[in-house]
Amino acid sequence: MPETWLVVGLGNPGPRYERTRHNVGQLVLDELAGRRDASFRAHRANARVAETWLRAGGAKLILAKPNSFMNVSGGPVSQLARFYRTEPERIVVVHDELDIPFDTVRLKSGGGHGGHNGVRDVAAALGSPDFARVRVGIGRPPGRQDAADWVLQPFAAGDREAVSILVADAADAVEELIEHGLVTAQQRFHAPRA
């Protein structure tokens, strides 16, 4: 029987936040669903879920976007993990990362939350930090701008093409991680660009 993976895109609900830096994880989930012509539907775990496959004969993917605000993402994630009987080792959380340069994707499994309140809440709710993270670099704000304001702003209009490439790269990273494992995915996405 194929493995089931729960892939969660962190973000905030509602149209006000849709295209903001903080919601880049949910943009990646939209990309993954779009590649498979999968649609999100309401789930009782306070999330929108699309059930699909990595590829024909491959792992089953549960793509999930919590309806809760970022900092309280753990409840929906833990409910989905129980519903789909998915252990932390088969969970991938896709989220924005201030400490990674814009247009960069990094992967890790386990460890600390690095000050990311959404990741902190997911780890607390699961009772374990041992899930994979696809960290999508949004960079630090310019000058003295507050980081909280920065993450809640939409990407600049001039960055649209770069954001599309970044989202596609992060979706590729999720697929690589599930198909070939963390180390192989890290070797591909952590290598310097030619």
TrEMBL record:
Enzyme class, broadest EC rank: hydrolase
Keyword RNA-binding carried by entry: yes
Designated name of the protein: Peptidyl-tRNA hydrolase
InterPro entries found in the cross-reference section: Pept_tRNA_hydro, Pept_tRNA_hydro_CS, Pept_tRNA_hydro_sf
Entry's EC annotation: 3.1.1.29
Summary of subunit composition and partner proteins: Monomer.
Organism placement in taxonomy: Bacteria, Bacillati, Actinomycetota, Actinomycetes, Micrococcales
Function: Hydrolyzes ribosome-free peptidyl-tRNAs (with 1 or more amino acids incorporated), which drop off the ribosome during protein synthesis, or as a result of ribosome stalling.
Alphabetized Gene3D superfamilies for the sequence: Peptidyl-tRNA hydrolase
Keywords (A to Z) from UniProt: Cytoplasm, Hydrolase, RNA-binding, tRNA-binding
Catalysed transformations (reactions): an N-acyl-L-alpha-aminoacyl-tRNA + H2O = an N-acyl-L-amino acid + a tRNA + H(+)
Site positions for Discriminates between blocked and unblocked aminoacyl-tRNA: 12
Main location: cytoplasm
Active site: 22 (proton acceptor)
Any one Gene Ontology molecular-function term assigned to this protein's record: peptidyl-tRNA hydrolase activity
Residues marked Stabilizes the basic form of H active site to accept a proton (site): 96
Family of the protein in this entry: Belongs to the PTH family.
Residues annotated to bind tRNA: 17, 69, 71, 117
HAMAP family: Pept_tRNA_hydro_bact (MF_00083)
Annotated compartments: Cytoplasm
